[in-house]
């Protein structure tokens, strides 16, 4: 069931497209922190672990289109892995997150990419995010290694920092640009959840003024 909708208001303003996006990755790589930074422009040093999944929304404005993301932030603990397909099923986009200071999380990210390629929607846009680049002095995963892997698998790739906001808005914007916006879709049902629309687009990735 597609969640994508596209519509053009009667007054001729921007087309609005809605996409389901899921975040995947090991526990403590910073998935929730990335979402919180993108949606509310905030960062909490000690972010509680997600239980199951959290739902948020945020919009990105392109030239003639407003892209609304329905974001599912999934839990990284192994005991929640069996729930993941419920969240990435029908998703048009995914961000697979790893911690640049932890090689194991990069290996796990590759496993998530394979699972998405095998089981998710055929045209899903997958982005790879190397988070915590503010801790580059503790780096264990080289940027070049991740970049090469991303190119081999046709993934978007950026290193990010939820703490400093580096590339956080940019990775969502890159996804928004890559998503198809020329069909009407069929999913105007809208997911229930808490809508946390950002009101201070200070770092460039918020909605139109």
Q: What is this structure's SSE topology?
A:
Elements: E1 5-7, E2 15-25, H1 31-40, E3 53-61, E4 65-74, H2 84-88, E5 93-99, H3 103-119, E6 125-131, H4 143-152, E7 156-159, H5 168-178
Parallel strand pairs: 2-4, 2-5, 5-6, 6-7
Antiparallel strand pairs: 1-2, 3-4
Kindly list the characteristics that best describe this protein:
Rossmann fold; Small_GTPase; 24% strand; 209 residues; disordered N terminus; seven-stranded mixed sheet; protein transport; disordered C terminus; Small_GTP-bd; prenylation; alpha/beta
Compose a concise summary of this entry.
This is small monomeric GTPase. With 209 residues, this protein is an alpha/beta fold.
Account of the 3D structure:
With 209 residues, the protein is of the alpha/beta class. The chain has one domain (15-177): Rossmann fold. The protein is 25% helix and 24% strand. The chain contains five helices and seven strands; from the N terminus they run ββαββαβαβαβα. It has helices at residues 31-40, 84-88, 103-119, 143-152, 168-178, and strands spanning 5-7, 15-25, 53-61, 65-74, 93-99, 125-131, 156-159. Strands 1, 2, 3, 4, 5, 6 and 7 form a seven-stranded mixed β-sheet that branches.
């Amino acid at each position: 069931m597609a969640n994508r909708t596209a519509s053009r208001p009667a007054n001729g303003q921007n087309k609005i497209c809605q996409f389901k996006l899921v975040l995947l990755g090991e526990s403590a790589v910073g998935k929730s922190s990335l979402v919180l930074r993108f949606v509310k422009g905030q960062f909490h040093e000690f972010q509680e672990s997600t239980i199951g999944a959290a739902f948020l929304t945020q919009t990105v404005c392109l030239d003639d289109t407003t892209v609304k993301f329905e974001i599912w932030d999934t839990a990284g603990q192994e005991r929640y892995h069996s729930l993941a397909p419920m969240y990435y099923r029908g998703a048009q986009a995914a961000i697979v997150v790893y911690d640049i200071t932890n090689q194991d999380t990069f290996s796990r990210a590759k496993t998530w990419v394979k699972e998405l390629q095998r089981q998710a929607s055929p045209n899903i846009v997958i982005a790879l995010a190397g988070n915590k680049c503010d801790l580059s002095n503790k780096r264990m995963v080289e940027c070049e290694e991740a970049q090469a892997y991303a190119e081999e698998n046709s993934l978007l790739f950026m290193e990010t920092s939820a703490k400093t906001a580096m590339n956080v808005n940019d990775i969502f914007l890159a996804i928004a640009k890559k998503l198809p916006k020329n069909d009407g879709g069929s999913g105007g049902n809208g997911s229930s959840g808490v809508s946390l629309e950002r009101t201070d687009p200070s770092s460039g990735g918020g909605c139109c003024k």
